[in-house]
Amino acid sequence: MYLRHTTRKKDGKVHRYWRLVRSVRVGRRVIQQTVAHLGELDEHGRLEARAFARTLIGAAEQARLFDDGRAQLSVPVRLKGVRVERSRQFGDVYLALALWRGTGLAQLCEAVLPAGKEQVPWEKMAAVLVSARLCEPSSELHIAEDWYRRTALEDLLQLKDEHVNKDRLYRALDELLVHKAAIEAHLSHRCGELFAIHNEVLLYDVTSTYFEGQAEANPLAQRGYSRDHRPDCKQVCIALVVTIDGFPLGYEVFPGNTHDSRTLQTIVATMEARHGVVGRVWIADRGMASAANLAWLRETGRRYIIGAPKSELKKYASALAAQSGWRVIREGVEVKLARCAQTGETIILCRSAERRSKEQAMHEKFSRRIEAALARLASRIDHAAKRVDASQVNRQIGRILQQNQRAAARFDVRLIEVDCAAGYRLEVNIHTSFDEWAALSEGAYLLRSNITDWSDEQLWKAYIQLTQAEAAFRIQKDQLRVRPIWHQRVETHIPVCFLAFVLWKTLELWQQRAGLGNSPRTVLEELVRIQSHDVVLPTTTHGEIRLRCVTQPDDAQAVLLERMGIVLPKRMRMTELDLPAVALTA
Prior knowledge:
Layout: E1 2-10, E2 13-26, E3 29-39, H1 43-57, H2 63-66, E4 83-89, H3 91-102, H4 105-112, H5 122-135, H6 140-147, H7 153-156, H8 166-178, H9 180-195, E5 201-210, E6 235-243, E7 248-255, H10 264-275, E8 281-284, H11 291-299, E9 303-307, H12 317-321, E10 327-330, E11 333-339, E12 346-352, H13 353-382, H14 390-403, E13 411-417, E14 424-430, H15 432-441, E15 444-449, H16 456-464, H17 467-479, H18 490-513, H19 520-527, E16 531-538, E17 544-550, H20 555-564, E18 571-572
Parallel strand pairs: 5-8, 8-9
Antiparallel strand pairs: 1-2, 2-3, 4-16, 5-6, 6-7, 9-15, 10-11, 11-12, 12-15, 13-14, 16-17, 17-18
Helix pairs in contact: 3-5, 4-5, 4-9, 5-8, 5-18, 8-18, 13-14
């Protein structure tokens, strides 16, 4: 990784913009990939980043971890015997612990998980689980047998390697689950302190994650609509609530065969019990828009913006066709407000040029497929030497239309009995009404709301932020590997993934404040190359001296750390258990 810059002249001044770049091999080619845009690296930006870092992670780590009292020791060294031992991953876990403590989760877990007779505090085990899920998502067994011993967490947490085993990790999962409500209430308060995030507008969405195996002992594991395209596997549904900036506030787990609309009332009641009721605006997609849910929200005085099924557009066909009343609120996006006479709701009609192009292309694609398949079927019937089986042909027609449902309603396909060898002829007609409605409705969608004091632009922009919830699911599935679930302890597996996403989102918002884009994985991949080592120095007078040192970042890493306001230690203190007897006399 290295620094590159571009120079631009603006208003008679020369501006130099820096970015971090790394070389990545793609097949036989090596390309330059931008890690982060650093801007002009001005002093104001540096000070702002350092101030936010102090707000997030506070002062430097406790001196007892990094001061071994040997800074002034001077002894002659035998250079021939100098060696490096015990290399550990340092940078990524150091950052993970800083986030864990900065979000207040360390203090919260220490308070709600009081020390008892156990040998290791549960707060430390929780820190291990969440750090592992953030840095290198894997199973608890992998953490205990491989990952933990390769990291510097043993030094940073003062927790010996032999104390981290799978049984203790599993028990820590159970301890965390008990305090789920307290953790979510804490996050609501802490995100406002760190990022001035307001949680009056809450985004709500549902996804699924599947099991590998039968999961017969878990009643939540059921077969249902799989968003992971694994209908062969049992699954659970995960309902997630985030702020309008994408910061997670809470989640619930439902059986895998639960319809989205059946989760809304439970989630709303649960979240309001933890985060308060006043001023809440709920935003959800069309899967939640059942008549019962909308009536319940209105009757209980809750405010909402919810997407409506595409079929409801036909009720507003005249308003959709009328050219007056539309307002451009963004390039390629038009909005018109209407009123629902039955419920008094505000109806937001939206048209997107980009969405129209996409839907037109899909209709054309599936129409061509149906036409080609029906032409082949008609040719086989026409050239048949004997009478065809009508029931078999009808099944083939049904299969063709079912595989291309997007355009199936456009075609009227009939098997007509005629006097020929095959006994039948295929007749295909096009419904012109389908084409007329498609031309009118392509790119259009409908929103419903009972909010009366917002403008059309405010309503549309708030609903579009629902992509933050969708992005949260993508990150948890792709980066934090909430799927698949390899064991039946789903109720304890998901909380750790949720807390890891809290750290992920905190790091992302921290990067944005520092002008480093929004790719936490890139930062973690760069910092993992910063390691800690034991440097062993054989002396002529004091035996061997062992120093636990942290490798110094290269120039590009140093810029990245400076931009974020992070100061890495140079040395770490070693306990007496770490030191050989001869080194203690040094």
